[in-house]
Structure formats: C-alpha cells, structure tokens
Specification:
Length: about 100
C-alpha cells in the first residue's frame, strides 16, 4: 500500500466530520443531502483502505454496496426535495409545513 493506513483513516475521519458538520449546520435540504453523501463516501474510503491493509476483498465489496446505496439515496432524496419544493416553494427544512413560513 503506497499511502500509509493511518493517513487513509485520518482522511476518512476528516471527510466524515466535514459531512456531519454540513448535515447538522445547513438549513438547505440539498446541502444536507450533500453532507450525507460525503459521510457515505468517507465510510467507503475507510472500507477500501482497510481492505487494502488486510489484503481482503470484503471491504471493497462493501464499498461498492455503499456507493450503490448512495446513488439510490441521492436519486430518491432529490425527487423528494423537488416534490417538497413544488408544494412549499422552499427547501428550508424549518419551513416545511402546510401553512408555510416567512422567508427572511
């Protein structure tokens, strides 16, 4: 393995933390979905690095499953966001009610 195993895990942890911060702090559903996608990619990176370190293929297979799950999550999430936007005219998760809210 060219890159040390610890560096792969540190990069994966940093990416996961960035995704978590994006998921928690943003008020836009699309940005929250992007943060979740970054977190899934960080988990896939950790699986791939671990599988290369231990010379096992199970981690790479799991990373393929994670990427397939991420693709399905993005397509379904974007469809739901478009549906919510058409109904409420906003993608702010705090304003998704039937009566609407005032935009600042």
């Amino acid at each position: 393995m060219i890159v040390p195993y610890a560096h792969v895990l540190v990069l994966s942890g940093i990416l996961f933390f960035i995704g978590m911060i994006c998921l928690v702090t943003r008020k836009n559903l699309i940005m929250m979905l992007l943060g979740l996608e970054i977190m899934l990619n960080a988990a896939a990176l950790a699986f791939i690095g671990t599988s290369l370190f231990f010379k096992q293929l199970e981690g790479q297979v799991m990373a393929l499953f994670i990427l397939a799950l991420a693709a399905a999550e993005v397509s379904l999430g974007l469809a739901l966001i478009v549906c919510i936007y058409r109904r409420t005219s906003t993608v702010n998760p705090g304003c998704i009610e039937e009566d609407g809210c005032t935009l600042e």
